Amino acid sequence: MKAIAISGSPRKNGNTEKLLDYGLKVLEKEGIETELVPLQGKDIKPCTGCLGCRKNSDKRCVLKDNDFEKIFRKMLNADIIIVGSPVYFGSATSQLTALLDRAGYVSRGRGNLFSRKLGGPVVVARRAGQNFTFAQLISWYIINDMIVPGSSYWSIGFGGAKGEIEEDSEAIASVQRFAENLAWLAHKITK
């Protein structure tokens, strides 16, 4: 079993990555192979809505960049997909939405390739906007026919300066419980 956590933060080792790491550690303890996929510095163009992925014979995205296809393959090979984003003006980062928009179009155009995969979002806000961003990201899971387990609270945290997320013990506990529920569900499904 394989889980990936995609960090949409442009900051290396920032609060979003740290919070995702807490979840990945829980999944590792449960015997699930994990990988953190940071998007900072990656070349992923935004979706143009051209529907080329549905028209060409190999059903691939027609946009040419360096990193979309590699990350999309990781998503296809994962049983669990977690995405994390800091809040930028009340929404997820453009890096993450570019990936998710394109991945969603290609997946749906090829017969809903993400259908029944497990996952969910993790969001970090300095002060506000986390609920908007959480709803934005969870909508991506729902429209892609994925399964999102709950937690003891939403998988959100607070931190602006690097490392501040470490002070949000409730966020850490919520993400850890979310990961426990992902692992529990993954093991139940594979029995």
Describe it for me?
The chain is α/β, with parallel strands linked by helices and 191 residues long. It has a single domain, classed as Rossmann fold, CATH 3.40.50.360. Helix content is 42%, strand content 16%. It is built from six helices and five strands. It has helices at 15-29, 52-55, 68-77, 94-109, 130-143, 169-190; strands spanning 2-7, 33-38, 80-86, 118-125, 156-158. Strands 2-1-3-4-5 form a five-stranded parallel β-sheet, sandwiched between helices. Helix 5 (130-143) links the parallel strand 4 (118-125) and strand 5. Helix 1 (15-29) runs parallel beside helix 6. The two termini are 12 Å apart.
Using brief descriptors, characterize the structure shown.
191 residues, alpha/beta, Rossmann fold, 5-stranded parallel β-sheet, 6 helices, 5 strands, 42% helix, globular
Distance between the termini: 12 Å
Write down the oligomeric state: single chain
In N-to-C order, the SSE pattern is EHEHHEHEHEH
Total strand segments = 5
Q: How large a portion of the residues is in β-strands, by DSSP E? A: 15-25%
**Average of pLDDT:** 96
Name the CATH homologous superfamily. Answer: Flavodoxin domain
Biggest sheet, strands in spatial order? 2-1-3-4-5
CATH topology: Rossmann fold
- Largest beta-sheet details: 5 strands, parallel
Number of discrete domains? 1
Shape from CA axes?
globular
Helical residues, percent: 40-55%
Low-confidence sequence ranges: none
What's the CATH architecture name? 3-Layer(aba) Sandwich
